[in-house]
Specification:
294 residues; alpha/beta; eight-stranded mixed sheet; 15% strand
């Protein structure tokens, strides 16, 4: 099994396929590297694709030290993947927890990113929802530690932004749930505690986002309510960002709509590679409804 080692000594499992410009896929809390199988098969025809498991997700290491889990660690782990595989730059694709790490990677290591895909990103970000988010993450941590991931998976994986996958693709949903049940109980609890609960709100990152020039594709589903407003925030704040909203779609965008997800990414990568991705035209930011001058 291929592993790489981070600068703090944690071993991360990864898989890769294909040749060409590199793409690094960063998974969500309820997923792992296997959630990107459809993307790995599709894009490895033209790109070098790497998917890895975050710390806490076997066969990656599951540290017992809680300080090993944080948003900063998750961000630096993307850099560790690039360093270990001798990649100067890569397209970085992240969903949910992986989307937060991808955004932070763009803020901290812009020179290492060919582009950023920030998808399903925003849970708990809205200022008025922070207390609720902390209450719900605390309850989730307690339940994971009490009952184990093999039990908690049933409720966590069937939330209001997950039923869309069940309704569209029962077979795919069953596979998703089966994989979620296999996740490490201590790894999941510490990831929720250190990475999810403690991460800063997107609304606290606007100063940095205003300075971003890395080509950025923001994606969300129109039924992923906690991510809609944060996605608009990123689109309106990052000068180099464009926004895709997938219709009738919840949180697991790439699992629910793999064809659409892949097509949007393919067009995005092509525009970036050909130098055709541009920052937003300042003339579109007048605030006028009809564009008329006073």
């Amino acid at each position: 099994m291929p592993h790489l080692t981070t600068d703090d000594g944690v071993r991360l499992y990864y898989e890769e396929a294909g040749q060409g410009a590199p793409i690094v896929f960063v998974h969500e809390f309820a997923g792992d590297y296997r959630a990107y199988e459809t993307q790995m098969r599709y894009f490895s025809r033209r790109y070098r694709c790497i998917a890895y498991n975050a710390r806490g997700y076997p066969p990656s290491d599951v540290p017992t030290d809680r300080s090993k889990f944080s948003q900063d660690r998750a961000t630096d782990d993307i850099r560790a993947v690039l360093d270990a595989l001798a990649l100067d730059k890569a397209h970085v694709v992240g969903i949910s927890m992986g989307g937060f790490a991808t955004l932070h990677f763009g803020l901290r290591y812009a020179a290492r990113a060919r582009s950023l895909v920030v998808a399903g990103c925003g849970y708990g970000a809205e200022p008025g929802k922070r207390d609720q988010f902390h209450v719900e993450t605390d309850r989730t941590i307690a339940n994971i530690e009490k009952d184990g991931m093999n039990v908690i998976a049933a409720s966590y994986g069937s939330g209001p932004t997950r039923v869309q996958l069940l309704n569209k693709d029962p077979r795919g949903f069953a596979e998703f749930m089966s994989q979620l049940e296999e996740h490490s109980t201590p790894g999941s609890a510490n990831t929720m505690r250190g990475v999810q609960r403690m991460r800063p709100s997107l609304y606290d990152l606007v100063d940095g986002m205003r300075k971003m020039t890395t080509p950025t594709l923001v994606m969300t589903g129109d039924e992923d309510d906690p991510c809609l407003e944060p996605s608009l925030l990123m689109k309106r704040t990052i000068p180099s960002a464009q926004l895709v909203v997938l219709p009738g779609t919840g949180h697991a965008l790439n699992l629910e709509e793999p064809d659409m997800f892949n097509r949007f990414l393919e067009t995005f990568f092509h525009q970036v590679e050909s130098g055709q991705w541009r920052n937003r035209d300042p003339r579109s930011l007048t605030g006028s409804i009809l564009g008329l001058k006073a």
